[in-house]
Design goal:
The strands form six sheets. Strands 11, 12, 13, 14, 18 and 19 form a six-stranded antiparallel beta sheet that branches. The protein has a four-stranded mixed beta sheet with strand order 1-10-9-8, with helices on one face. A four-stranded antiparallel beta sheet has the order 4-5-7-6, covered by helices on one side. Among the domains are: 150 residues, Dipeptide-binding Protein, domain 1; 212 residues, Dipeptide-binding Protein, Domain 3 (Dipeptide-binding Protein, domain 3). The chain is of the alpha+beta class and 551 residues long. The protein contains 16 helices and 21 strands. The protein is globular, with a radius of gyration of 25 Å.
Length: 551
């Protein structure tokens, strides 16, 4: 069964009704075998073998600042709803699967070294024989067994079925599990009540961390589930101490041994001063002034990372005025993405199509150039927008109200930037309204942004669900997909790039969907010379700290 989250249903309500997503034919995932060598004959020469990769350096330590302050609610990963808690949980625990590359939505092994789906209602997991628990009470450093993982999954499914499970858990696919059993010490069989195309991705989810039954028991009975004594698992790091900084050392028995010997993780406070004194090796820059000052530091490395939310607007398109696509085309063209990124965010954003640019499968803006609002020339966009607005009777709408979330407006003076542009281009008065996200969500559900009202909203949407582009498309456009497109959206990942590209082009021109994605913001991260790490992601990717090293 496919589950649309409440956030997706809110977007669907804005466009005039939520569609349902049904399971389609599922391809199977099987353990991957090495490719066979190319055939040879007396007249052919085998290709030369590639040179062995140079071993990466081992040892040393790195200190990094996170993107948010620590705000621990519980150290029970199946009951937490606080993303910053994962900064600790995600390093001491392992998952069954991991996002090997969040950008390209590529799943890889973790505790499960391989997995296969011989039928749509059966998933087999083969555990890594080198995986071991930490040798810290109540654990003893023994190997991870299928019985222990089965007990964990039984508990996770039970919690997922509770109404109190935090929405951030995104645990709906777990409710499709009918039963879990261990075939032998290293093999698990998961039976599904119905096909669940998102279950493998859910096993790599942010909070899908595997607890030893003994740790789960202590958490269930704990007077204080926030005690660091609960931070023991099978992950690549052992927690040494936690005050204002979490200090880890490499787990010697890990199935994914880190290259570093030690790692320190702290909150993003006084980052420039701490970098200068050698206390930090990597930090985020949210303020452009911090980024500008960081660029003056000798040899520092700069990398960009998108934020997890996109800026968007939604419209109820099942009745006037927004049922006339020309009006949405005019608004989209007036707020040309290239112009908007500079005027609102000083260039620290990228144009956003149906799939946000954080996804490797997203169409670049030039591939959407024929869609109003994505062209290269803002002046041409503005002229065309005015013509569409007038042809559709836009001036007769009178003042158009644009609502801005109260948390969004003061950061960017968005109402002044957006409304002055709309008035200048379209020639109609636009009026701001500042309100809460709670009020906006209610109005979206009530389809109040339209249906006789010349109103819409502008601001951050909900956090993107995961590195899986299928989930993002379903949350934003599930209500507008045809049955065939829904089949594409639940096809096993990776979905063919040309298939996703075709779907995005179709959705970008589907104004009846009532969703106008504008921009995805990006910030900078700065690293000390002589340190290396994978490309950062807005989705939690601390499991890839094992790939960090010092040169």
């Amino acid at each position: 069964m496919i589950h649309l989250s409440r956030r997706a249903l809110l977007v669907a309500a804005a466009a005039g009704g939520a569609g349902t997503v049904t399971a389609a034919i599922l391809a199977t995932d099987r353990p991957r075998a090495p490719q066979s060598p190319l055939p040879t004959s007396p007249t052919t020469t085998p290709p030369p073998r590639p040179a062995a990769p140079t071993p990466l350096p081992r040892g040393g330590a790195v200190a990094l600042a996170t993107d948010a302050s620590f705000d621990v609610d519980t150290f029970d990963p199946q009951r937490s709803g606080e993303p910053s808690t994962v900064e600790l949980l995600g390093r001491v625990h392992a998952r069954l699967l991991q996002w090997a590359d969040p950008h390209d939505a590529r799943l890889g092994p973790d505790l499960a070294a391989a997995w296969e789906q011989p039928t749509p209602d059966l998933l087999l997991l083969h555990l890594d024989p080198t995986a071991h628990w930490h040798a810290s009470p109540p654990l003893d450093g023994s190997g991870v067994t299928a019985d222990q993982v089965a007990a964990h999954l039984d508990r996770a499914v039970a919690i997922a079925r509770e109404t109190s499970a935090p929405l951030a858990q995104r645990s709906a696919p777990l409710r499709d599990i009918a039963g879990v059993e261990s075939i032998d010490a290293r093999t698990l069989r998961i039976r599904l009540a119905s096909p669940s195309p998102f279950l493998p991705a859910a096993l790599a989810g942010e909070y899908a961390l595997v607890l030893h039954p003994a740790v789960a028991d202590t958490l269930d009975a704990a007077a204080d589930p926030r005690s660091p004594t609960h931070l023991v698992g099978s992950g690549p790091w052992l927690l040494q101490s936690f005050d204002v900084t979490a200090r880890f050392r490499a787990h010697p028995g890990s199935h994914r041994p880190p290259l570093l010997e030690a790692l320190a993780v702290s909150q993003p406070v006084d980052v420039l001063d701490r970098y200068r004194t050698g206390e930090l090796d990597e930090f985020p820059a949210f303020d452009p002034r911090t980024a500008a000052e960081a660029r003056t530091l000798p040899g520092i490395q700069e990398v960009h990372v998108h934020q997890r939310e996109i800026i968007l607007s939604t419209f109820a398109t099942d009745a006037p005025p927004w049922s006339d696509a020309r009006l949405l085309q005019a608004i989209s063209g007036a707020l040309s993405r290239a112009w908007l990124a500079e005027a609102l965010l000083a260039g620290r954003a990228d144009p956003c199509g149906p799939l946000p640019p954080v996804y490797g499968a997203a169409l670049p803006a030039d591939a959407l150039a024929e869609i109003p609002g994505y062209g290269p020339d803002a002046a041409t966009e503005a002229r065309d927008a005015r013509q569409r607005w007038e042809a559709a009777g836009g001036p007769a709408l009178g003042p158009v109200v644009v609502e801005f979330p109260a948390i969004f407006e003061p950061r960017y003076a968005a109402s002044a930037v957006i409304l002055s542009r709309l008035e200048a281009v379209l020639g109609t008065p636009f009026r701001p309204s500042i309100t809460s996200y709670t009020a906006i969500a209610r109005r979206v559900q009530e389809r109040s942004y339209g249906n006789g009202r010349a109103e819409f909203w502008f601001g951050w949407g909900a956090p993107l669900p995961s590195p899986d582009p299928r989930e993002a498309l379903l949350e934003l456009y599930g209500h507008a997909l045809t049955p065939a497109e829904r089949g594409t959206s639940i096809a096993p990942i990776p979905v063919a790039p040309e298939t996703l590209a075709e779907l995005q082009r179709s959705l970008a021109a589907r104004w009846s969907a009532g969703v106008l994605p504008w921009l995805q913001q990006r910030n900078e991260r700065f690293r000390r010379p002589g340190t290396a790490a994978p490309r950062p992601s807005p989705f939690w990717d601390g499991h890839r700290d094992v790939q960090r090293y010092r040169t």
